[in-house]
Design a protein that fits this description.
Helices cover about 60% and strands about 5% of the residues. With about 425 residues, it is mainly alpha-helical.
């Protein structure tokens, strides 16, 4: 027996209603579909160029391409067309105007333009730019001019290097060695170097083996152990990471212990540790740390502290849109911290403080506070309400950023406040 469909008229009405509803949702313009596919095809090449040119892991290029997609979509909105491998300075100017009409926060607009600048340079340097050379020159000039940022009443005041140098403390070698030896991060690093002895086993990537993580972490004041040192449990993949145990956290790599990873990156970066195929050994400079004259010991410690500060400020492994803004603000705070007019930490903690109406700035604030608190924990900033650099670290701060605040902004961007 054939079953008669119910409510044919209702079905027909539903179909008409659905059709009417669909016509209110305009399809994605073909230009944007084409551009999206072209960007997908360019992703591997851009990731490789990003890793080689920017010096960051290839996977961190993906957020930049996301920014480019948004920018090209805005170009299409204002001009009615767009291309994946060429755009004009006029279209970039129109994007800036459109962003201002939308009320886009200035820091977010700066990140968008920075992403487009990187992308334009990629197209030009790899021969993929399909516009005219004159078009690229105009785009490059416009985007370079936006790198200077936009002034705001909420920004941290810049400080000149002349002012920083004027307030650097003066020590004899013996005095400086004494004060440097009291800095927590110096003490932790010295314990790690003593523990390393003549050599320790290392992985093919230059990290400590899991069996040695607990001892190394103890040297730098952290309770952590490699996963193999504890009884494995049946858990879903990934959920065993950072498990809290009676002995601290359990990790699957030395890189998951932030302070140990930062010290290690600093020591290897300045040649204090030499990595072999399966071992790590102290470099020749470490002899000066322990056996040199007072002046040589000071130089060894000061060089380490300078490099460690740069790792803490500029060495973030995962790129994010707020990363350059956080780093720039850190530089401003540290340089001001050498002078008699340091920035209060409450400046960033006040929920009603400057810039809190900006969602993008609000995203950056907690990360900045966490970084500043870390610098206080390791003895680079004085404990207390003011972000004041300890006298022992002042020379290292000046050496870490020798070009001063203004020049460093071209390296990392504008401060968040």
């Amino acid at each position: 027996m054939t079953r008669k469909p119910k409510g044919p008229n209702r079905s027909r009405k539903t179909s008409k209603a659905s059709k009417k509803h669909r016509t209110t949702q305009p399809p994605t313009p073909l230009d944007l579909v084409r551009v999206d596919r072209e960007l997908d095809s360019l992703t591997p090449a851009f990731a490789h160029w990003f890793e080689e040119t920017v010096g960051s892991p290839a996977e961190q290029s993906l957020p930049v391409l996301g920014i480019v997609r948004n920018a090209l979509s805005m170009i299409h909105e204002v001009s009615g067309f767009c291309y994946a491998t060429s755009f004009s300075a006029e279209s970039i100017g129109a994007v800036i105007k459109l962003a201002e009409e939308y009320g886009m926060p200035e820091p977010l607009l700066e990140v968008l333009l920075e992403g487009m600048h990187l992308y334009a340079d990629f197209l030009s340097e790899t021969g993929r730019w399909t516009g005219t050379p004159e078009d690229y020159d105009e785009v490059h000039a416009l985007l370079s001019s936006t790198d200077d940022g936009v002034e705001s009443d909420d920004e941290l005041p810049a400080v000149s290097m002349q002012e920083v140098e004027k307030h650097l403390p003066r020590f004899s070698s013996g005095e400086e060695l004494a004060v440097l030896s009291q800095v927590s991060i110096i003490q932790r690093t010295e314990q790690l170097l003593l523990w390393l002895g003549e050599s320790k086993e290392a992985t093919s990537t230059g990290a400590l083996r899991l069996k040695d993580i607990q001892s190394a972490a103890h040297c730098v004041g952290v309770k952590a152990r490699g996963l193999q040192n504890t009884k494995r449990e049946n858990t879903l993949p990934g959920l065993e990471e950072h498990r809290q145990t009676g002995g601290g956290i359990t990790v699957r790599s030395m890189h998951e212990v932030p302070i140990l990873n930062a010290i290690w990156a600093t020591l290897t970066g300045i040649g204090y540790l030499t990595l072999g195929s399966a071992t790590v050994r102290p470099g020749h400079a470490v002899q000066n740390w322990f056996l040199g004259t007072d002046e040589q010991k000071v130089t060894a410690r000061r060089n380490f502290l300078t490099a460690y500060v740069r790792v803490c400020v500029l060495g973030e492994e995962m790129w994010s849109p707020v990363q350059p803004l956080i780093s720039a603000s850190q530089i401003a705070v540290l340089l001001k911290g050498v002078t008699p007019d340091p920035v209060p930490l409450a400046f960033f903690q006040d929920e009603d403080g400057p810039g809190t109406e900006d969602i993008f700035m609000a995203m950056a604030r907690p990360h900045l506070v966490k970084r500043l608190q870390h610098l206080a924990d390791v003895g680079i900033l004085e404990p207390g309400p003011m972000c004041r650099v300890v006298p022992a670290a002042a020379a290292s701060i000046a050496a870490a950023f020798p070009d001063g605040f203004d020049q460093m902004m071209h390296e990392v961007g504008e401060p968040v406040l």
